[in-house]
């Protein structure tokens, strides 16, 4: 059974800091991994999608890496801003035939202080 | 990208009644997913909805309690039947346009059962 864990559960940092969020999964047979952010009371917004054959993806100040063999992904946020405050979730897509699904991590609540 | 809307955005319901949540996508999506998110928690997959076939339910969720329809590639409904206070949660739908591509989420429906 695939389990996805995120560490830390919560993080508070001053503005301008670079930070790393971690995502671990128990079954390395994944199709892809996606990082999302969720603002309070809102739906999820996709940040980055990494296919299983890729090592990393970048978008602006965000960089996500994937190490399938060790069951880990990291989301690096450079020069954090108060607007980055949100909950960050990772999700892995299981390798299956026919119907597929995503397993979500436990989330990291980030607060960036001005 | 795909834009997903949900109706209603929130509702307060009485125990024993049923509520149908609608999920509309502005373009065709391959698979649609329904999730439940309890306060402060991550997302739990309820079921996967493929057009033209019955939904596939996760362990702990049954069709009699959460019937789902997927009449076409842009629309799905989830009904929460015979509600109890334990069903109070946020319900989210999502879809992806290409198998295994980016998941897009609706804004969620906040349900309170008294």
Task: Please characterize this protein's 3D structure.
The complex is a heterodimer of chains A (114) and B (114). By secondary structure, chain A is mainly β. Helices cover 0% and strands 59% of the residues of chain A. In chain A, the strands form two sheets. In chain A, strands 2, 4, 5, 9, 10 and 11 form a six-stranded mixed β-sheet that branches. In chain A, a hairpin with a 4-residue loop joins strand 7 and strand 8. Chain A is globular. The termini of chain A are far apart. The mean pLDDT of chain A is 93. In chain B, 0% of the residues lie in helices and 52% in strands. In chain B, a hairpin with a 6-residue loop joins strand 9 and strand 10 (103-105). Chain B is globular, with a radius of gyration of 13 Å. The mean pLDDT of chain B is 92. The A-B interface holds A 31-32, 34, 36, 41-46, 49, 89, 91, 93, 99-107 and B 4, 31, 33, 35, 42-45, 48, 50, 56, 58, 92, 94, 99-108, 110.
Topology overview:
The complex is a heterodimer of chains A (114) and B (114).
Chain A: E1 4-7, E2 10-14, E3 19-25, E4 30-38, E5 44-51, E6 56-59, E7 62-67, E8 72-77, E9 86-94, E10 102-104, E11 108-113
Chain B: E1 4-7, E2 10-13, E3 19-25, E4 31-37, E5 43-50, E6 56-57, E7 68-72, E8 75-80, E9 89-96, E10 103-105, E11 109-113
Parallel strand pairs in B: 2-11
Antiparallel strand pairs in B: 1-3, 3-8, 4-5, 4-9, 5-6, 7-8, 9-10, 9-11
């Amino acid at each position: 059974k695939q389990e996805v864990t995120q560490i830390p559960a919560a993080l508070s940092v001053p503005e301008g800091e670079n930070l790393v969020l971690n995502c671990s999964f128990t079954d390395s047979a994944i199709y892809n991994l996606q990082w999302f952010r969720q603002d309070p009371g809102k739906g999820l917004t996709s940040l980055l999608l990494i296919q299983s054959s890729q090592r990393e993806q970048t978008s602006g100040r965000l960089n996500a890496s994937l190490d399938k063999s060790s069951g880990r992904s990291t989301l690096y946020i450079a020069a954090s801003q108060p607007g980055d405050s949100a909950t960050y979730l990772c999700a892995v897509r299981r390798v299956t035939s026919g119907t597929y699904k995503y397993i979500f991590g436990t989330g990291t609540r980030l607060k960036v202080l001005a | 990208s795909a834009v997903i809307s949900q109706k209603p955005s929130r509702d307060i319901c009485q125990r024993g009644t049923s509520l149908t949540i609608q999920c509309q996508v502005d373009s065709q999506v391959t698979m649609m997913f329904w999730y439940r998110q309890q306060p402060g928690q991550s997302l739990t997959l309820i079921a996967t909805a493929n057009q033209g076939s019955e939904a596939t339910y996760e362990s702990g969720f049954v069709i009699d309690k959460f019937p789902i329809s997927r009449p076409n590639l842009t629309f799905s409904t989830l009904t929460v039947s015979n509600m109890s206070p334990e069903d109070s949660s946020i319900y989210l739908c999502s879809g992806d346009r290409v198998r295994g591509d980016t998941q897009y989420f609706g804004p969620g429906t906040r349900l309170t059962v008294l």
